[in-house]
Structures are given as C-alpha cells and as structure tokens.
Amino acid sequence: PPFLPVPPTKKKQIDNVQPNENSDGLSASERIALRHGLFSGGGSGGEVVLRSILRLAPRLLSKRSGSMLAIVSEFMNAHPGMGLEIKIQNWWNQGQEKETTSIPLLSGSGSRTSGIVFTNEYPLSAETYASRRAGGHNGHNNEEEFQVWNDHLIRERIKSVSPGLLFISRSDGMDNLDRSNHMDASLTSSTVGVSGNASDLIVRQCVVPKSHLGSVWTPQNWEAAKFIRQTWSNEEE
C-alpha cells in the first residue's frame, strides 16, 4: 500500500472498533488512525516503512544483474530539487554500510545499482493533500479532520506529496552516469551520493507528464504507463 504520513493519536480503545462502525466519541485524530491504521500508516512523517525497506534492501536484493526492487508509495516533498532522490540514495547506502552480519549480502555478478523514482509532474500541496485526506465520513465534520492533517503536515515540514513508483535494479556495470544523454528531459540531473563502491545506489527522479487520464497511479492512465515503460527501457539499454 502507499505509506501515508498519518497524524499520531493518543489512542483510545480503538483496536476493537471496525472502520465501518459508528465512531462517535472518537476525536478527529482517532478517526483518522482508525481509518488508515497499520495498513497504510507510514509513521508520522510517512517515511518510516519506506526508509526501513530501503535500508534492508541492499542486503536482500540479489546482486545478480537484472534483480529488481519495485515500490509503490506516496513520496513527501516530491517537487524536483527538494532532494527526494538524495534521501532515497542515503537510506540505501546507510543500509549497505550497516556492519551487522546477521543477514549475509547475496552475491552475484551485477556491479551497478541504479534506480528511478517516478512522481507526478505537479505534486499536491500540503493543503490540498490535507483536504483530500480529511474525512467527512459517517457525517463527521471534515473541517476538523482537515485541521488535524494540515497542522500535522506543517509540523512534519511536508510541503508537497506525490504518488509515485520507485524502481531499483542491478546491472552489468555500464556507467549509468553516461546515460543522461539518452534519458527523457524530465529526468533530474542529480546523482549525489556516488562513490567508489559499485553497489552504492544512484537514483534519478523523473516527473511523469500531467495527463487528463489521471495520476501516475491511475490504472487507466495508459499515457503514464507508456511514458514509464519507455523511460525505464532507455535506462536498461
């Protein structure tokens, strides 16, 4: 599921309350927690689960060429230039540098790890995101929930949110830095975090052009699917 920046709650006895049951007596933050719960909760900042996955991934993803990790998530502060790709690289590389030997690195012949994070051309502002996440469910005042969401995003310094897709793959060692001439112009040029370690991750952010068919996630948005497929194919050439 997408990992959402769910506002924290002091948590009354909501564990035994089902989302479709009468939630009278619960506060706005408790209703939000009940609705999203563990299924889509990504921690207060929306990145706890994603960060954990990316820190584990270097030790779990085979180093064989062609191995791939694919993640569907919401991405915080997703406007190009806000450092989304750098964050992803840092989480991966932190996991790779972890000195624990409890999970052995999986071996293979791949020598280059690269990825692309696809996001909408126009991420939602924090205010618009809060408005869309606010309830209005079962007759409750969604203005109250909007305020909870909006205040929470401000505290977390989340200025924009975009649905997105992250693909990371191992390859045979072609220098991905030389591929920029073959990439779509919508790719950002940042490759911060590159080091001498061939297993370090290089990530580019790619904005998917706005379409009347919907966002990067919309199943019937064939334009987005075609764009992503073409861009990824170019990356693998």
Structure report:
There is one protein chain. α2 packs across α3 and α4 runs antiparallel to α5. The chain is an alpha+beta fold and about 240 residues long. It has six helices and five strands, in the order ααβαββααββα. The longest helix has 15 residues. About 30% of the residues lie in helices and about 15% in strands.
Q: Would you kindly provide a brief summary of this structure?
A:
The protein is an alpha+beta fold and 237 residues long.
Given helix and strand content, the structural type is alpha+beta
* Biggest sheet overview: 5 strands, mixed
Q: DSSP helix count?
A: 6
Number of β-strand runs: 5
Query: Cα-atom Rg, whole angstroms?
Result: 20 Å
- Percent of residues in helices: 25-40%
Shape: globular
How much of the polypeptide forms β-strand, as a percent range? 15-25%
Extract low-pLDDT stretches: 106-110, 174-196
The end-to-end span amounts to 30 Å
Order of helices and strands: HHEHEEHHEEH
Report the average pLDDT across residues: 78
Question: Topology of this structure?
Answer:
Blueprint: H1 28-40, H2 48-60, E1 68-76, H3 84-97, E2 112-120, E3 124-125, H4 126-133, H5 142-155, E4 160-171, E5 201-208, H6 222-236
Helix pairs in contact: 2-3, 4-5
Features:
32% helix, 237 residues, 6 helices
